[in-house]
Structures are given as C-alpha cells and as structure tokens.
Amino acid sequence: MDITGASGSELIWEKYKEAEKRLKELENSIEWFKVCFDTAYEGITIVDERGYIRMMNDAYCRFISVRKEDVVGRYVEEVIENTRLPVVLQTGIPERNQAHRLLGQDMVVHRIPIWKDNKVIGAVGMLIFEGVSELYKIFERMQILHEKIGDNRIVFESPKPKSNKVTFDQIIGESESIAEAKKIARRAAQTSATILLTGESGVGKELFAKAIHYLSPFQNGPLVSVNCASIPENLLESELFGYEEGAFTGSRKDGKPGKFELANKGTLFLDEIGDMPLHMQAKILRVLQEREVERVGGTKSIPVDFRLVAATHRSLEEMVREGTFRKDLYYRLNVIPIHIPPLAQRRTDIPLLIAAQLQAISQKNNMPAKDIDKEAMSLLMNYDWPGNIRELVNTVERLVTLSEDDRIRTSDLPEVFFGKGAWRGEQEPSASWKQPVSVKRGQQDEKKRILEVLQEMNGNKSKTAKKLGISRATLYNKLNKYQLG
Ligand SMILES: Nc1ncnc2c1ncn2[C@@H]1O[C@H](COP(=O)(O)OP(=O)(O)OP(=O)(O)O)[C@@H](O)[C@H]1O
Questions:
Q1: 3-state secondary structure of 2
Q2: Ligand 1 site: residues with CB under 6 angstroms?
Q3: I want to staple 244 with a disulfide (CB 3.0 to 4.6 A). Which of 219, 255, 392, 469 is the partner?
Q4: pTM for the full predicted model
Q5: What is the pLDDT of residues 448-473, one digit of tens each?
Q6: Residue whose CB lies within 8 A of the most ligand 1 atoms, among 169, 175, 203, 364, for a mutation test
Q7: Percentage of the chain with pLDDT > 90?
C-alpha cells in the first residue's frame, strides 16, 4: 500500500491505463497527420539522409503516376526526374520557389533540408503549383480583382527598377526568435510608438529600422539615420539641432537644419544611442517631450513631428544603474523594446542566410550561383559568428570570390572556422582573412587542423571525424590526400 492506500497491483493498473491513453492519443495524432499529408494539394516527398524516399503523399504519387508502396524505400533519383534533393542533402541549403521540369511541365518547387543537431538528416521536396501556368492564372485573377476595385497596381510588365525600400521579407530568418522579433516589429511599425532595437553589432538593427519605416504611417516622409557613435561630440549638437546663421566660426552663412528637423513627418533612426553623452541625452529628452527644437544660436522653437526608432548594442539598463544613461530618457525610448538575438542563438537561420547571400552575389555578378558542400556548411553552422550577419555576408562574398570551382569546400575556409567558437573574444573577427586565402593555404590549414585533432583524440578516427564535423569516409579520403595514413 502507498500513502493513498492503493496497492501495488492497483498502481500498475493505473500506469497501464495511463500509457494506453497516451498511445491512443499518439495514434490519433498520427492519423490526423496522415490525413493532412495526403489531403494537401501540394505534392510532398520526404527523403532520409542518404536520399531514399521515406514518405510520399497522394498528390505527389498522382502527379508522377506511381503507387506509394512502389516508391517508398527507393533512391529518389530513380523515382523523380531531375531531382535536386540529393544536392540539398549535400549542401544543407534550402532551395525555395525554384523552377523544376517534371514530365514535360514547368513546376515551382521547394527543397528543404532537415537539420538536426547540426547535421542534415533528410530533406523535404514540395511541388507548389501544378505547373507554372497556375502561377500566371493567379496573377490574372489578381489583376481582374484589382481592376474591379479600381486598383491597377498589379499589372503584367517587366519588373521595375529596384527601389531602396526595405520590406520585412528581406529580413531573412525563420527561427522562432527572429520570427517573434519580426512579428512585434511589424505590429509596432503601424503605430507611431517609439521603438528601441537592441542586439549585438551586425544582427540587423538598421535593417529592422528601415523595414519599420517603410511599413509605417511615416513611410512617405524621410528616413533620417544618425549614428551617434560616429559623430564627434563637439559636432553632435549642431548635427542634431541644426544652427542659425553665424552661430559659430566656420558655420554656413544661411544656417543649417538639424536631423530632428530633417526627419519631420518621417522616421528618425538614432543608432548607437548608448554612446550619446549625458549632456546631449538631456537635450534629446526635451525634444521628445516638447516636440520642438531650437537651432544652435537661434531663439525660435521649430515644431517637429517624427517617429523615433533608437538602437544600441549596449545594455541601457546597466548604463542606467551605472549612472551613464538617464533613466527618464531610457523610459521614453523603451516604449516598444525589440531584441534581435545573435546569430549563434539562431543557428537554423544560417543556411537560409547563406543561400540568400549566394543567390544575391550571383545575381549581382550575373553568373550562376555557387553552392557549398555539406562539410563546409556544417563548419559554418558550428561557428559562433561574433560579427553576426554582417560577418556572414562578408564571409560568403569572400568564399565565392576565392573558391576556385563551383562548390565551396572546407579547404576554402580559413582556420577560424575549424573548432567551435574557438576564438570568440580573443581575436579580431575573421583575422585570418587578412591574407588572401588561396586554395593551397586552405589545404595547409586543413591538414594542420586534422593533425591537431587526431593528436587530441589519440588517433581515434571516429572521434576525430566527429570533432571536425565530417564523415569517417571523408576523413579517410583526406588522410590519403595529405598522406597522413
Ligand atoms: N536577417 C537578415 N537578413 C538578411 N540580411 C541581413 C539580416 N540581418 C542583417 N543583415 C545584413 O547584415 C548587415 C548588417 O546589418 P545591420 O547594419 O542592420 O546590423 P546592425 O545591428 O545595425 O549593426 P551595427 O550595430 O554594427 O550598426 C547588413 O548588410 C544587413 O543588410
């Protein structure tokens, strides 16, 4: 008997009933999953890490005229013509909205790698439209709809030259934390509330500020950016407030409006607000409270109306505690705080960002996009990215420029990428890029790194391969290549 008075067999019976109930629930949700999978209009196929089909839904089977039981367990290339799922398994890079020719029809497809514990364990292929013609039909229907309501914005014509407008779609990332930040920013953008963006350098604070402006009621006004850290302290006041004629020696004859005035009816982006000297903080607070400015050397007040977005990589709370940031200004700024997490805390976004960057570089240079092999991608996924997305953007650009063939490989990477977060805080980001990295140098780095890890692991090849983020087979190939056998 236990303290509730139940005997041992009663307890076992209860446990059994509980387990049975859970099993039923599980069966029920699997049933639901199967129904959804097979009811979807889109064709879906799932392959394991070797490229063998594990699942294919009814829509896909119907489209390529096969029976499920005949294709599950077969290598995907034997079943789907022109498939690039094996490539996606190799690179770990998602390929979204790609054209794919299947049974003589142009299709739009997504190919999505499944990452788990920094390894690609499979991939999902989705057929989005039954032929690209479906896409045109949607456009036609939208055009008719917009003509009816007197809105002729959607028309078939060649794409217009790109504007500098930034939209939230351009903020790449699907991790939970970035999706949450985007959700809050989208909502806040549509109000006039002050927004405080925080996050390490290079996480995308400025990109967020731009996307907020172009979605806000202030989008038709100017977007004026001020980097408070880069303006010398003695010029900060005249930059922000402007000055009147003859305010100081060397000033312009007819005076100059400041950034507050220039941002009228638009958005003022005060970047690195944590670097603002204390005496200027007081003056800024006054403008925010009174909504008017007085130019340096002037006497009249000029009304200003703008939305403020501020950003900082510092902790303003800590600065308030230390007495280096005014508490009242902090409360004025912190109306809608949005934190953008560092890239190392949202590693699932790394392949997406790399894919987008490879695409952007190829478009810019009008050449086919390079890809990355799985081992190199795994090293990039493991790296800490202290310079965040700015560092990633620069890294991909350098890799594309310096790698000699169409695929970026581990031998193209400098040594900072070998070993997780090896240098964080100890060395300048990407210091080893300073020398041009030839393939030869990359190979020397790789050989050195393999030897180091082999020694560390007392010659154990499995452990060495694991630590290097490569397969045992690849390690053996490399040992042969560098004659380390
Ligand atoms: N989610 C993202 N998707 C695509 N590009 C991004 C993303 N986030 C940042 N970038 C790019 O990374 C670079 C750095 O971003 P940004 O200047 O906005 O960072 P920041 O946080 O303002 O940095 P700092 O604090 O150093 O000024 C820019 O080229 C930007 O376009």
A1: coil
A2: 171-173, 199, 201-207, 271, 313, 353, 389-390, 393
A3: 255
A4: 0.68
A5: 778 888 888 888 888 887 777 666 77
A6: 203
A7: 41
DSSP 145-205: HHHHTT------SPPPPPPS---GGGS---SHHHHHHHHHHHHHHTS---EEEE-STTSSH
| Residue 336 CA, ligand 1 centroid: distance in Å | 20
Handedness of CA 204, 205, 206, 207 (dihedral sign): positive
Give me ligand 1 centre to Cα 125, in Å: 30
For the ranges 62-71, 113-122, 196-205, 461-470, which has the lowest average pLDDT?
461-470
The pLDDT tens digits of the residues spanning 141-198 come to: 667 766 766 655 544 444 444 567 898 988 998 888 999 999 999 999 999 999 999 9
Q: Kindly give the distance from the C-alpha atom of residue 169 to the centroid of ligand 1, in angstroms, as a whole number.
A: 14
* Tokens standing for residue 445: 């780095």
User: Which residue from 96, 104, 95 is spatially nearest to 63, judged by alpha carbons?
Assistant: 104
Q: Which residues have C-beta within 8 Å of that of residue 304, sequence separation ≥ 6?
A: 260, 261, 263, 264, 287, 291, 292, 293
Name every residue whose Cβ is closer than 8 Å to that of residue 231 and which is 6 or more positions away in sequence: 239
pLDDT at 431 over 50: no
User: In whole angstroms, what is the distance from residue 471 CA to residue 120 CA?
Assistant: 12
- Measured CA to CA, the distance from residue 60 to residue 83 in angstroms comes to 13
Please give the domain boundaries of the chain with CATH numbers for all domains: 40-130 (3.30.450.20), 169-341 (3.40.50.300), 344-426+437-481 (1.10.8.60)
CA of 204 to the centre of ligand 1 (A): 3
CA 265 – CA 220 distance, rounded (Å): 8
3-state secondary structure of 469: coil
How far apart CA 109 and CA 134 sit, in angstroms, is: 13
Place of tokens 């490399």: 478
Residue 54 CA to chain centroid, in angstroms?
Answer: 29
Quick check: 425 pLDDT over 70? Answer: no
Mean pLDDT of 375-403: 89
The pLDDT of residue 389 = 95
Atom of ligand 1 nearest to the CA of 204: 18
Q: For 211-269, what is each residue's pLDDT tens digit?
A: 999 999 999 999 999 998 888 888 888 899 988 876 666 666 678 899 999 999 999 99
How many whole angstroms separate alpha carbon 394 and alpha carbon 51?
A: 32
